[in-house]
């Protein structure tokens, strides 16, 4: 009867949790302001200090995972309730992996968010920060025709961590936002997959003209960094292994073109770059050196006047500070990211830290900018979690109370190397610490095996690790899923 005991204890704990949650609603201030402008007021002496985390990406999630919830309440504000495991996102665009495998719910990363009475996840965007009053302004995220209008609310913090990431750069090129698809979120990957499959099916419909067929099945990727290259590799695998079998009528029409202004994979060792160029060309990817001048609905125009018709356009030319980061009245690092010191604090304001792609060292630290990479974001999140726990244990967790706390060791970043898959069971592994440094660099099938093993072990939960392994095996045996759902 142990299952019955387990069930009844589960039931009673659920009841307690819901009662607690009901009680905790008193934390929200609704009395003086209209309900639609309520929020979480400053923490009281009998409550735990509150860490507010803006963003649920690599940096924010790693930080939340490490926070000691016996010391702090955690409030996360983000427009998505999951973290995206970006290194495997390109694989979901063509069905090598299912979308679920790269989405990790925040409540699984930090269970206190859904269990503790003072911890919350708010599906919202941060719109402003009032550093003087320790308050974050937010606007709820709602979608769909029947959804209520978004409303504003505020959240007071004892410690604030800005982990808002970055946004794709478009260099002000006209038409990119309107016609290209970025590859940063799960919904981008879903859009790419739907469009790719739609174009494949449309090009098979009787009556379609040759020229239109060619256009629909021309997939153009702009940007030859790791993301653009990995996506091109996945596409070419999809074409070679799946389209040729299951869309045999149109197999000779589908092509991939990768456009890059300089060299592809410029941060990798020259030998690896050459290998990737040869390999991609061998698998049918056309590499074009060019600068995009304009993007229209059905074609892009290069600087030299060349017109490139496309059916699918994926834009992956790096990232820069987002509009919210640019709008915040906080010290900035060269390049426009939020400025931070050696302990990841934002100088001149109290209790604000910033990590991940949205932050950079202020000039006075003399430190070089860190690359916009998950490994940087993750390590900053880990470091800051430990630091905040230390501050909390030294009674510095409350707002304006950490002035006398010794912060200890500074954050130091050591690059672990870079990896990129290039399709056809090949990958690059570059273990040099920087571009000029010495170190191991490998390319080929062994690298591909290292790439897969490394990312499989990095997937956050055992559940998703299992899903990824099963998806890889299923794809190997049965091919990719090509249903357009
Ligand atoms: C396809 C792809 C593949 C990649 N592969 C690799 C790789 O193999 N290795 C590697 O090291 N790096 C890789 N990267 C880079 C890596 O993903 C980023 O460096 C990393 O995600 C940065 O983490 P972050 O937490 O700073 O930002 P993000 O992970 O981008 O998270 C930002 C968070 O902020 C939220 N947010 C945005 N605006 C607001 C707002 N106004 N209010 C509240 N929340 C907001 C977002 O919803 C998101 O949750 C890849 C990136 C992509 C796109």
Gap from first CA to last CA: 43 Å
Shape verdict: globular
Question: Which structural class matches the secondary elements?
Answer: alpha/beta
CATH class of the largest domain: Alpha Beta
GO molecular function: NADH dehydrogenase (quinone) (non-electrogenic) activity; oxidoreductase activity
Organism: Glycine max (Soybean)
EC number: 1.6.5.9
Membrane topology: Peripheral membrane protein
Structure description:
It is globular, with a radius of gyration of 24 Å. It has about 475 residues and is an alpha/beta fold. The protein has 14 helices and 26 strands. Helix 2 packs parallel to helix 12 (about 375-395). The longest helix has 23 residues, at about 1-25. It folds into two domains: about 15-165 and about 320-395, FAD/NAD(P)-binding domain; about 170-315 and about 415-480, FAD/NAD(P)-binding domain, CATH 3.50.50.100. Strand 14 (about 255-260), helix 10 and strand 15 (about 285-290) form a beta-alpha-beta unit. The protein has helices at about 1-25, 60-65, 90-95, 105-110, 110-115, 175-180, 185-200, 210-215, 225-245, 270-280, 325, 375-395, 445-460, 460-480, and strands at about 30, 40, 50-55, 75-80, 80-85, 105, 120-130, 135-140, 150-155, 160, 165-170, 180, 220, 255-260, 285-290, 290-295, 300, 305-310, 310-315, 320, 340, 350-355, 360, 420-425, 425-430, 440-445. Strands 1-2-9-8-7-4-3-10-22 form a nine-stranded mixed β-sheet. A five-stranded parallel β-sheet has the order 12-19-13-14-15. About 35% of the residues lie in helices and about 20% in strands. The chain binds flavin-adenine dinucleotide. Flavin-adenine dinucleotide (FAD) binds near residues 77, 80, 89, 125 and 324. Belongs to the NADH dehydrogenase family. It is an enzyme of class 1 (oxidoreductase). It is a peripheral membrane protein.
